[in-house]
Amino acid sequence: MDKELASTLFYGDINIPVVALKEGSYRVGLLEVKFKPGMKTEVPYRVLQNLLEKKIVEVDVDSILELHPLKKIQWMESRTKELTKLDEGFYVKAKLYFSHLREKARRDENAEIELAKAKVLFEDIVRLRLTKIARLAMADPTPSRDFMEKMTREERVFYAKMCHLISEWEKGLKALVEGWEK
């Protein structure tokens, strides 16, 4: 993920499914969450890295994303002119899924094939969604909350930047050509 984009987004409230590998816990304020081996739960993304490093949990990859759901998302995006609603944490979960596939591909040729297929699907989803978002911004460079409801955080950042860029360019061009003040 682009460093600028990653630094502008806060993923702390996105929950990631995990499986506990051993006993452990983490605190959120006064609340302490305890784990027992084999326990499946969700943890906030902001505490995930710490738990992974301590090997208390592992990401429950089967619960975040798989090839079949990616195919379904790609199919739905390609069949409609409007954005389909994605899970708020779609791109974070995709990042974790691809990280898992890359690790798995080092040991398994079949995982390499799955990784290649997933990359193609993911790139198509991104291309389809960005095209739709760019069209929305071009049609009206004033950000619309209705449209933004179907976007992920990353897409809302892109959409707002596109709207601002188009609006400023349009104002500048009008000022240049027609002598308007900005």
CATH topology descriptor of the largest domain: Methane Monooxygenase Hydroxylase, Chain G, domain 1
Helix content: 55-70%
Q: Tell me the CATH architecture of the largest domain.
A: Up-down Bundle
What multimeric state do the chains show?
A: single chain
Instruction: List the strand order in the largest sheet.
Output: 4-1-5
**SS field, number of helical segments:** 8
**CATH C-level category of the largest domain:** Mainly Alpha
Could you tell me the number of beta strands? 5
Low-confidence stretches: none
Distance between the termini: 35 Å
Structural class label: alpha+beta
Give the overall silhouette: globular
Q: What is the beta-strand fraction?
A: 5-15%
- Summed over residues and divided by their number, the pLDDT gives a mean of 89
For the sheet with most strands, the description reads: 3 strands, antiparallel
Rg estimate, integer Å: 20 Å
Series of secondary-structure elements, N-terminal to C-terminal: HEEEEHEHHHHHH
Overall tally of domains: 2
